[in-house]
User: Fold this.
Amino acid sequence: MMTSSSLRTCALYLVLTTALASSTAAVACAPGASFIADNDAAMNRMMDAMNITPTGDVDADFVAMMVPHHQGAIDMAVAYLRYGKDERLRRLAQEIIITQNDEITAMRLAVGQPLARTSPSPDSQSSGIPQHSGAVVHGSLHDHRHP
Assistant:
């Protein structure tokens, strides 16, 4: 039979062990948690922006919903570039940024909307985000390093 002192010691041990494990896990998961937070924010912005009031102009309504959808993909790719390590996925994220930007440009041009910069810029150099000219390119994957 355990005494109350032994029970307190066991309880204290469990509390300390749990706290230590939690703080170690929190430190180890910080980049993962930051990625999820950035990704959730991108998804929320995208979903809010896609919730439009239809105008009756199918073309304009389509663009009004698809531009935030594409921007959401760009924002998620940027979040991956900030935290992700796999070189193949990093390259894919860079391609997503370029192609989604191109498609946003094409959609806006199709309905006569002004072009706007959609990719992030302040920390793009440090996070591996490709700089993009905004040219309209049709197709899916483009390697702008080679002519």
Remarks:
- Helices lie at 4-50, 58-83, 87-110.
- Residues 9-20, 22-27, 121-126, 131-147 have pLDDT under 50 and may be disordered.
- Residues 32-110 form one domain.
